Amino acid sequence: MTRISATELARRLSDVLNRVRYKGERFVVERGGEPVAAIEPASSLAGITLKEFADLLRDAPRPDDAFADDLERIHSAQPPALSQFREWPS
Questions:
Q1: Closest C-alpha to 38, from 76, 2, 75, 83
Q2: How far, in Å, CA of 68 to CA of 62, rounded?
Q3: Which percentage of the chain shows pLDDT scores above 70?
């Protein structure tokens, strides 16, 4: 995988996208030396079809009677989602 800064990506976006599409290259985008994103061919993102997913769900074991209680216990133990967000530094 090729590492590229966000600034360099902005300058060379068309070239990078062509290399990804036609050569299958992959890039890790860095900001301040830290990886923040990956760019790779969309074909590598292909997972399973909707039919395959439906088949998996159909064949999966059914939850037992205590499943809803377990979910409620987990939910009750979690803090509200909004309390986890903080303002962006300026």
A1: 2
A2: 12
A3: 86
- What order of strands is seen across the sheet that includes strand 34-39? 2-5, 27-31, 34-39
Domain ranges of the chain: 2-45, 50-78
Tens of pLDDT, residue by residue over 23-64, are 989 999 999 999 999 999 887 656 788 888 899 899 998 889
CB 37 within 8 A of CB 9: no
Query: Where do we find the tokens 């999966």?
Result: 60
CATH code of the domain occupying 2-45:
3.40.1620
What element of type H or E holds 27? strand 27-31
Question: The tokens of 35 are what?
Answer: 């990886």
pTM tops 0.70, yes or no: no
